[in-house]
Amino acid sequence: MITKIIKQIFFLIISINIINVCQEGQGMNTIIYEESKENFSNPERGFFVPFDPIGSDGKNLVYPLKLSELEKTKNQNITLIRRYYLLLDFRDKPLSQSFLDMIANDFTTARNAGVKLIIGFAYNWQGGGSDASQDRILSHLDQLEPLFKINYDVIAYMEAGFIGFWGEWNRSTYSLDSNNNSRREILFKILSILPPERMVALRYAHHKRDIFNNQNPLQSEEAFNGTYRARTGAINNCFLASIDDWGTYNHTDPYIVEQQKIFLNQDNQYVVQGGEVCAVSEYDDCPNALNQLARMRWSALNIGVYDGAKILKDWENQGCIAEIKRRLGYRLRLLKSTSPSKVKPLGELSINFEITNDGWASPYNPRKLEVILRNNKTLKEYYLVVNEEPRMWLSGATKLVNVIGGIPANIPEGEYEILLNLPDPMPKLYNRPEYSIRLANQKVWEPSTGYNSLLSKVFIDANAKNITYSGQGFYQPR
Question: How far apart are CA 444 and CA 401, in angstroms?
Fold first, then answer.
């Protein structure tokens, strides 16, 4: 028996060596990538820090964001800020120019700090006083539209807000929370003035089903198509607080709660899910938290205030906080890539790579994918924009990406490194590394550029024997 096993191992080794020789004969490089368990920052995902309109003395306040505070947050591997604006003084009048200027300055401050904002608006925060009429809300949204169009690059997503206490669409003094027509008009107005590249999240998932008169979750063919329904996500601001998360699922019958969770599990494949914990309960232990975060595909979670801070401390003591930090939102990881060792000018460069998503969600905002060739000596770069949708790299799935591009006729011969870039497509953020996606692999990330190296090189050689390619080619940016 032992002799037979030794023979099997011997022939296995011989077979592997034959495969490697064949690959070398065909001029192909295959790289297997090592996983990284490091907790690092990535844009538009993870824990967020709330900058809410309430002071340490419990009083309402309105204040501008400070660059130093946002930079401190960024240094803690946090890239999201939740910023709520209190409209207490504008319940019966237009927003002032000074207030609009403060919001505009906040967007600039966030951009300078390298973070993005989850934004929302409310007419009361502590539960005191009224909200505003529907007409007043719509007029305020008209005032905000120009700001959103200029600055949506640093908006991660928007919470629907405006209605009721804390802008959470409950207990409205104008009964807007219980009027489906009013809810629809306000949501549609928000979606109309926010550029179509951004989503709006609703506090209660059943409101989405009622507003769109559709009980079915989004399907893949509807994903990211720009319709209002495809741009409407979810927030849960009392996650794990009770069987119904304090009204999030609008029923305490376990069967009805389960049906609503099934809806969110499927719908949230293609829209954002955010929110916070709000009260210690029997449901907030690590096993259940991990299960529900994964099932509802969470992208963003409050870092913890009030009872929320106690729950996060419990997660730390129970040993699951590190996993939560890593897996909130997307966590993309290379598995393997294959590329040629040589290619000629005007030749075809074919690259294949496998990528998996270890996170609980996928990217929810538009994202580019580029392959870059960088000359080892001159460091000149040549780019190829890949026709691929990273938002469809779903949680738990593995994707094989095939890249074919033509080599420019005038490219200098020499050795070139092959890199991937997943930049923010917005012009003000495109060249900023902190807004590019970092892959969860060892030795691939370049913090100075925001590139991820494939750890593979290709030699541009006029004598290389590969076919001429007439399709889309690499280009050198101006």
Answer: 18
Domains and their CATH numbers in the chain: 27-38+331-460 (2.60.40.770), 46-326 (3.20.20.120)
H helix runs in 301-444, sequence order: 307-318, 321-327
Kindly give, in sequence order, each residue whose CB lies less than 8 Å from that of residue 352, ignoring residues fewer than 6 positions away.
Answer: 337, 338, 339, 400, 401, 402, 403
Q: In which band, very low, low, confident or very high, does the pLDDT at 207 lie, cut at 50, 70 and 90?
A: very high
3-state helix, strand, coil in the chain (%, to 5): 30, 25, 45
DSSP-derived secondary structure letter, 54: B
Opening angle at CA 191, ends 435 and 118, nearest 5: 40
Tokens 């719908």 map to which residue? Answer: 267
| pTM of the predicted structure, to 2 decimals | 0.93
Of 232, 173, 176, 235, the closest CA to residue 204 belongs to 235
Residue appearing with tokens 């009027």: 179
> Residue 14's Cα: distance from chain center in Å?
45
Question: 89-126, pLDDT tens digit by residue?
Answer: 999 999 999 999 999 999 999 999 999 999 999 999 87
